[in-house]
Amino acid sequence: MSVEYEAVIGLETHIQLNTKTKIFCSCKADSWEDAPNTNICPVCTGLPGVLPVLNEKVVEKAVLLAAAMHAEVQPLSFFDRKNYFYPDLPKGYQISQYDQSLAKGGYLELPVPASADADGKGYIRKVRIHKLHIEEDAGKTKKEKNRRFVDFNRCGVPLVEMVTEPDLRSADEAGQYLIRLRQLLRWLGISEGDMEKGNLRCDANVSIREKGSSILNTKTEIKNVNSIDAVKDAIRKEIERQIREVEKGNTIKPWTLDWDDNAGVLRMMRSKETEADYRYFHEPDLLPLEINEEWKKEILKNLPELPLERRARLMTEMQIPEYDVDILTGDCDLADYFEEAVKLYKGDAKKISNWLMNDVLRMRNELGVTMAEMKLTPAYLASLVRLMDEGKINITTAKNLLPKIQESGKDPQTLVEELGWAVVSDDAAIRVVCEKIVAQNPNEVQSYKDGKESLIGWFVGQVMREMRGKADAKLTQEILREVLGK
Hints:
It is a single chain. This protein folds into three domains: 5-298, no CATH class; 307-419, no CATH class; 427-484, Arc Repressor Mutant, subunit A (Orthogonal Bundle). Helices cover 39% and strands 20% of the residues. The protein is built from 15 helices and 17 strands. 35% of the residues are buried. The mean pLDDT is 91.
């Protein structure tokens, strides 16, 4: 009888906070596109005799994230020196937090839809947070031919490190966790969460066990993964490797593995370090971090309704389908736009959702702008849908109006009047065109009279083309049936 295995996965994420300056000095923090070693100073390169000064904004953004993750912000925490020797770590240590960190506990809930559930039911995976702390980033190295180059620009960039409990059970769940975390970071406005630019980095700890067991077996750590798809691919490959090794009777060794995205393979880097290797001790050049209730309250007044809470509310209050609401709550600006448009429209929220999903988002993406930058405001979208409801414009005109509104910044009613695009509801004017179309197409008329009633749609289309899409569609069909019935 073959053994069925399950994966046990924990993720370590490093989140780059989007502050203007670094965590302990005034150097620019976002140096992604800058020339190597141009955003450095004696503090972030660890020259003798300099002292770090904590950036207050780093603490505020980290506290927001901790609260959003349902973690308990500690009134007192300490910075520590994490000692190790890499070429991109000029001080020979990293300022981090160890046993008394910024926050403790917390969790992130992952709604797994029925389509992604083997049982077809869907479920909520609760991923607990083992540790959440702030620290400084190291630099980076780049190898070209036989030479290794070091860029210290990233040294001192502020990070939040979050370590999960081993609560994930598949590569897909790990990917879902990163998607939800990235959404939350952008929602809070504390990080861009772009893995390709290093705003969000992830290491995965992977082990396997027999399904139904509660034992935690030896884990391996996967590093250097720079996209969500790559994280999923690397985890799948490692699960498959560990199963092969166990079935051969071999022991899993606690390796650190390097993911080669181009080749799609994992390679052994080194044996995994333990906490003892880092020789932690309190950072002597920084005071303990105290967060009193007054400061905490001031920070948390900027905490918005969280994505999953808003998702649940929109589904319940507005009866928006799960697929729609997942997209509409993809970022905070989009969710705000949607709710404002629904409020002004005062009608069926699904109509607004349809226009956003099918037309507005496509136009926004083509233009490369944010919802806040759109000239097609929530008020204009509500007005556009209302004009359709009132029969003043048809759907063809409405779709043609969208880019006109965005280009001009004018409201739909004004544009309809200026362009002469109002629906023609004059019986006599439409009847003239209907009679003309019927007279010009005797073969189609005969087919219709012989029983092919679906041709009525074709006749309506011909009238619409003749009247440049402005004819009242319902009235046009009524008149055509009259004329064709003669």
